[in-house]
Fold this sequence. Notes:
The protein is of the alpha/beta class. It has two domains: about 5-105, CATH 3.30.1330.30; about 110-270, 3-Layer(aba) Sandwich (Alpha/beta knot). About 35% of the residues lie in helices and about 20% in strands. The protein has helices spanning about 5, 35-40, 65-75, 85-90, 110-115, 130-140, 160-165, 165-170, 180-190, 230-235, 255-265, 270, and strands at about 25-30, 50-55, 80, 100-105, 115-125, 145-150, 175, 190-195, 200-205, 220-225, 240-245. The strands form two sheets. It has a seven-stranded parallel sheet, sandwiched between helices. Helix 6 packs parallel to helix 11.
Amino acid sequence: MSRRDREPPGTRRTNAAHSRADSRDSTRIIVAGPNAVEAALNASKGTAIAAVHRVYLEDPSGPRPRGLAQMARTKGIPVSSMGKGECDRLADARCQGIAAEVVYAYAELETLLARDGLLLFLDGIADPHNLGAVLRTAEAAGALGAVLPERRSAQVNATVMRVSAGAAVYLPVARVNNIVRSIQAAKEAGFWILGLDCEGERLLPRGGSGEDPRLGVKVGLILGGEGEGMHRLVAENCDEIHRLPMRGRVESLNASVAAAVAIYRLLDGDLYRAGRRG
Length: 278
């Protein structure tokens, strides 16, 4: 395999025309770790994975790598052997000796706004570990999707994929030029926009509890970045700003932890209906 084959493609945009007809905003990334690679290989048309170009394995003798190699070859995807530690260097993330080069396609904002559910607006979450954790929780809880800005924010990459345990394959994520205009478009589409801030005037309502009758089928939750919180213009476009209940001496939570509590609080009524997981 040539050096060019081994080098990660970074965040180059691609039209993915050679694999599937797909006009979405796309970028080539390295997917790191067995769970994320398996999710990418199992991804169906319409998910975030527009194509899988190659699978990389450091030790193809174990049962998990063998299974992934067989799955890839069945789909006509090349499998390359790598030296110890090369997958980590390729992805710039811990891979457990397993990685894949994929075309990741961001969702269209208009498609998300046409649906019902809880839509997350991530206002400047810079740490890819936090972004991956938020996406994992959102997908597990049944959120509609997430929206993140193209600048001053972590993007979906190898670390996000690994931390999300493949959830980023299934949860639609839209990438936008202007998060404020996207929030305004969501309000026009009928979303009730809630900001989360430790100094919010009211506690975040619980879904299904009747605490707030406005908590309907279209809800947008804005989560600010680590340390800075929501930007001023973003906060000004919230319908209301809420806080989480804090009874101890610690004044704030990690961004991904706060997101997890808020997501489950808002979706509480949906999560525990008959017929849902849980």
